[in-house]
From TrEMBL:
SUPFAM superfamilies membership: NagB/RpiA/CoA transferase-like
The protein's name: Glucosamine-6-phosphate deaminase
Residue ranges constituting the Glucosamine/galactosamine-6-phosphate isomerase domain according to the UniProt record: 11-225
Keyword entries, A-Z: Carbohydrate metabolism, Hydrolase
Native source species: Planococcus notacanthi
Assigned EC number: 3.5.99.6
Gene3D superfamilies: 3.40.50.1360
Domain of life from the UniProt record: Bacteria
Pathway: Amino-sugar metabolism; N-acetylneuraminate degradation; D-fructose 6-phosphate from N-acetylneuraminate: step 5/5
Alphabetized Pfam families for the sequence: Glucosamine_iso
Catalytic residues of the enzyme: 67 (proton acceptor), 136 (for ring-opening step), 138 (proton acceptor), 143 (for ring-opening step)
CDD domains: GlcN6P_deaminase
Amino acid sequence: MQIIKAKNYEEMSRLACSLLVEHVQQTESPVIGLATGSTPEGLYKCLVKEFREGRVSFRAVSTFNLDEYAGLSMEDANSYQWYMTDKLFAHVDVPARQIHLPDGMSQDFEQECLNYERQIQEAGNIDIQVLGLGLNGHIGFNEPGTSFLSRTHVVDLDESTREANARFFPSIDEVPTQAISMGIASIMESKKILLLVSGKEKAEALYQAMNSPVSEEFPATILQLHPEVTVIADELALSKVLESYGEDAIAHELQVK
Ligand SMILES: N[C@@H]1[C@@H](O)[C@H](O)[C@@H](COP(=O)(O)O)O[C@@H]1O
């Protein structure tokens, strides 16, 4: 696990952005896994800027998002489809046919999950999967207790996750109770993982992800077993790791462009 310390949220976003841009520039058919939530918003802003200023094209890129709420259509401003269109897809040149999110309005969730897995495999698997970190250690929407063998599946959202995401909805009652999420095994098949973490409130979760025994009770601990994980986190998110291990735990070689 390579850990890169960013000064703040903006630097975390720029570092993640330059890693992805470099990969897209150097790869014939890049396959990128994308996440939602507050954490990657700065990354998407930066990708849009890079595109507008002519430094990168997404024409050859395929994208797969981690998850989608069950029961929200793409016209719903709280769906992840909407989020992605609003934050990234509408502003860059990625072709619509190369964009993939689970369909939260599917009439047959089981089939939808199988199709999603098949599409990822047909694309040759994900080159770089962007991940955020839930306060309870969830990755995608894989809540504590999710099997490490899980593939794309329907999940019941934890109350704590619904509460954490309620800020995006008019009230907590409107936060869906279920979602479709790539499973832990699906995420672990990505060739590289880019975990982004920002803010003091994530410091404990990041510390646990990196140091607690690998356990389904804290899903992000599985990342300790992935051969190519880069964590880009800001100083606040790294505060507990730094307290325990000092600066030696941190890599410095990545420069912001
Ligand atoms: N399904 C998403 C995750 O993919 C995201 O990583 C996580 C953290 O969100 P945030 O970045 O807003 O803290 O919560 C949500 O529930």
